[in-house]
Amino acid sequence: MVSASITLSIVAVIVSFILSVLGAFPLSDGTTVGDALPNADDSSKVQSAADGLLLGYTDIINDIASFQKDPDLARAEARKEAMFRYARELLGQYEGFSGTLSATLK
Q1: Which of 2, 22, 33, 104 is the most exposed place for a label (fewest CB within 10 A)?
Q2: Dihedral of the CA atoms 79, 82, 83, 88 (nearest 10)?
Q3: What residues contact residue 24 under an 8 Å CB cut-off, 6+ apart?
Q4: CB under 8 A, 24+ apart: contacts of 80-88
Q5: First vs last Cα of the chain: how many Å apart?
Q6: Helix (H) or strand (E) holding 24
Q7: pLDDT tens-digit profile of 23-76?
């Protein structure tokens, strides 16, 4: 029974981390995945994580297709900068996740 609760706590930490990372993912309309998804309760966090991955993925594909139809260097540079900002902000989240996961595993 104890191992099941430890496993569930590790899964909860990982899903929460995925949701926090996805929530800040910039979409092409200037919003984030977190803005587009409703707040998840404990029972729907895994579904929210899956929805966030799908939303981010389809937004990138749609963005690439839109550049094929209407090339715009200024828009492409703005999108690139938004992705770089997002990636830089993730560094602190990964460090925090590492500490939380290490504490959970001890």
Answers
A1: 2
A2: 160
A3: 32, 33, 34, 86, 89, 90
A4: 82/26, 83/26, 85/26, 86/24, 86/25, 86/26
A5: 17
A6: none
A7: 888 888 888 888 887 776 666 777 888 888 888 889 989 988 988 888 888 988
Residues facing residue 32 across a β-bridge: 26
Q: What are the structural domain ranges in the chain?
A: 2-105
Quote the CA–CA distance of 53 and 56 in Å, as a whole number: 5
Q: Which are the contacts of 55, defined by CB distance < 8 A and separation ≥ 6?
A: 27, 33, 36, 37
Residue 4 has pLDDT above 60, yes or no: no
Which residues 6+ apart lie within 8 Å of 28 measured at CB? 59, 62, 63, 66, 79
Q: Is the pTM here over 0.90, yes or no?
A: no
AA identity, residue 63: D
Q: What is the pLDDT of residues 82-92, one digit of tens each?
A: 989 888 888 87
Q: What pLDDT sits at residue 15? A: 79
